[in-house]
Amino acid sequence: MAGHSKFKNIMHRKGAQDKKRSSMFSKLSREITVAAKMGMPDPDMNPRLRLAVNAAKAQSMPKDNIQRAIDKAIGGDTENYEEIRYEGYGPGGVAIIVEALTDNRNRTATNIRTAFSKNGGNLGASGAVSHGFDRLGLITYPASAGDADAVFEAALEAGADDVSSNEDEHEIWTAMDALHEVAKALEATLGEADGAKLAWKPQTTVEVDESNAGTLMKLVDTLEDDDDVQTVWGNYEVSDEVMEKLG
């Protein structure tokens, strides 16, 4: 799950992240292959591929895996992945956007619809919730990259629009078409980012109570566990107290 800075309690809630590592690597590989296929197979000449490779490096993906994913695109015998966005509502009226890369539209649609219906949500039509989000660039750095003031100054200098910092990380927001340039400028001052991608930032957020939070987390987990799903975005906030109760 990604989005508002208060979601960090969700992103760090589980110690079982290693289990998800192989699944994460396959998602990262898929994005690298698609990016390499859509443009030049050279990260320096292809902004989307560069961001995908940087994201993979940030997750400690081995260089061999990264090169293999690029080679798949060059080989021309790779599956044809299609980018699809699904929109729906979760428990408590939470708006959710799911981004997928799939080679089988019917399989993915069935899996996403089932995940929503079994976990207190419902899948909507295209555009059902995205009007409540802004499409922006998001660059993330660990807290160790510098204090909030230093990162804010660097981001401002690089042409970013907004920064939010917490004890875990810094989120730097940019205009959609400025993501690559800002990421490159920040690399010179702050080093390599943990992540840089296009994001859906909610215009307003919904506070989710204890009665809905458990089911919502299950929905998010189910969606994220699907091999075809790349990212899940939502407009919710869950307090640390509620997250602790959920364990």
Describe this structure in words.
The chain is 43% helix and 23% strand. The protein is of the alpha+beta class. The chain has 3 domains: 5-75, Integrase, N-terminal zinc-binding domain (Arc Repressor Mutant, subunit A); 82-131 and 204-246, YebC, transcriptional regulation domain (Alpha-Beta Plaits, 2-Layer Sandwich); 134-202, Alpha-Beta Plaits (2-Layer Sandwich). It has a 4-stranded antiparallel beta sheet. A 4-stranded antiparallel beta sheet has the order 5-6-4-7. Helix 2 (21-38) packs across helix 4 (63-75).
Give the spatial strand order of the biggest sheet: 3-1-2-9
Q: What is the percent of helical residues?
A: 40-55%
Shape: globular
Order of helices and strands: HHHHEEHEEHEEHEEHEEH
**How would you classify the helix and strand content by structural class?**
alpha+beta
What is the residue-mean pLDDT, rounded to a whole number? Answer: 87
In the CATH hierarchy, the third-tier topology of the largest domain is known as Alpha-Beta Plaits
Count the helices. How many? Answer: 9
Q: Let me know the number of strands.
A: 10
Architecture blueprint of SSEs:
Elements: H1 8-11, H2 21-38, H3 47-58, H4 63-75, E1 82-89, E2 95-102, H5 105-118, E3 122-123, E4 133-142, H6 148-158, E5 162-165, E6 169-174, H7 179-190, E7 195-202, E8 206-207, H8 210-225, E9 229-234, E10 236-237, H9 240-246
